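The aim of this short unit is practical: by the end, you should be able to scan a pair of folded records and say something sensible about each. We start with the first protein, listed as its amino acid sequence and then its structure tokens.
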Amino acid sequence: MEISDLQKDLAAAFRWTARLNMHEGIANHFSVCMPGSNDFYVNGSGMHFSKIKASDLILVEENKIEEIKKNPYLVDPTAINIHGTIHKKVPHARCILHVHSKYATALSALKDPTLPPIDQNSMRFYNRIAFFNDFGGLGFEEESNKMAACIGNHRTMLLANHGILTTGQTVAQAFDELFYFEKACETYITALSTGKELKIATPEVAEKTAQDWENYPTGLGELHLKALRSILDKEDPSYKQ
């Protein structure tokens, strides 16, 4: 079967996430739906982010989910539950990226996980983050339903005591969201570590900047992933296999 660009895009996202050390070995999951369907590709159990190829991705067909759940060595049960549930219940979440990256997870561990508008990256997410504050253990069925209900129309959801989940209509959109959210969290956590007072933008400036991001004249996410794939094409094209 011919490998699609959809699979190659997702494989590239895995590889670059590993390069950025935003992964946890064989834990965490990325998924993307087939066009016009809730069937989705996801990483299988035991696959290290740095080695995933396009052909390694498992296609989870909606009418076979219960059957696949019986084989946890094929796809991790938490991936089936979290990703399958959100894909089904949240129409804009065609791609879902979930990691326990260092700085986003640090933010999720704070009693007040608000990301204040202190730079351009953090302003991108001003009033645009869903906060899932009801951590109840690993992402099995009940937890997954609560996550799907929480995300609303947001593209980014911070999971208290857990990590980060970003979504998009494409892999490129979801990855760009993930990348810049982690950068924003890194800046915030670093600024907090100085112990000095933060310079927080006004709500008016923060909202204008967020809208500027949304209305940027070029598709930054698509350009971002295209640039990353061009690097991988030269340095390690095995991701496309």
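Turning to the second protein, read its sequence before its tokens, just as you did above.
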Amino acid sequence: MSQDLALRAFGRTDVGRSRPNNEDVVLVRDDLGLYAVADGAGGHRSGEIASSLAIRSLENYFGATIRRTHEEPEFDRFGIPFGARRLSAAILKANRDVIEIAKSTPAHKGMGSTVVAACFSPRSGLMHVGHAGDSRCYRLRGGHLEQLTQDHSLLTDVLEQRPELDDSVLERLPKSVVTRALGLDPKLRLSLRSYAVVAGDHYLLCSDGLSGPVPSVAIAEALASHAGPEMVVEDLISRANAAGGPDNIAAVVIECTEGPETKSVPPPPPGGVRAGRDAFRSDPELLILGIEELESLDADSASDDLLQALAALLGKRS
């Protein structure tokens, strides 16, 4: 990273206290400015294959395109950061890789993985975050903890489509069903956002094995301890296990030790492209998988949990 943006990071996974094997994988590549967490799912140990493949694919893509980061302008003519497009392309490539292996090996059919990845662009001082599923990214800034990602979960999607539903109905929905993940659909729609990085920021990438049992107050307390990324990761994993460790646990903590003192606004796009009805926006539109789309999913492209959720929904609506 450049002298204007200095980072310290550490990541680790833990099997937890309830699962026989570990399907979570983390990536910490300071030299690439790339950090990620993948949480695999699938029978016959396929989940760990999916998550490992996803992380390796991300790493390989960033390694193969590092020269372009010096050749391409920081923003394209539409004002979209090159780093955001690069991260999006890397995640979509990982999705294709997982699907290809799943199709070529019968034992791995139906495997998939959530992913949350962050990359940092020194020239613009931006962090780009892309995710699919319920693995999350948090930011602690000025003592305030903010969840930067929104889970692609059945509950979230139902609330976006049917916010008037009674809580008693929502309580009966499966709690651990994701509606987007690598390996489910060749036309994956991921969520991607860019944020200005400020000196003193602390970021956490984690699987639901951490965000589920550990409340946000405890996450904020751990990140605010200033104990260093390694100690914070160990603390967070200990907290998840102390809460029962119901799932595999993955955590990557990134601390910005040097950078801008205040949030900066990226420069206007080169060429003076005007914002209009048909112009591209710097924050890509979040496309939601609605209930009607959920009903039309092909069984071969959906996880068992998603099929169970579909059956539950159809039962409630009939």
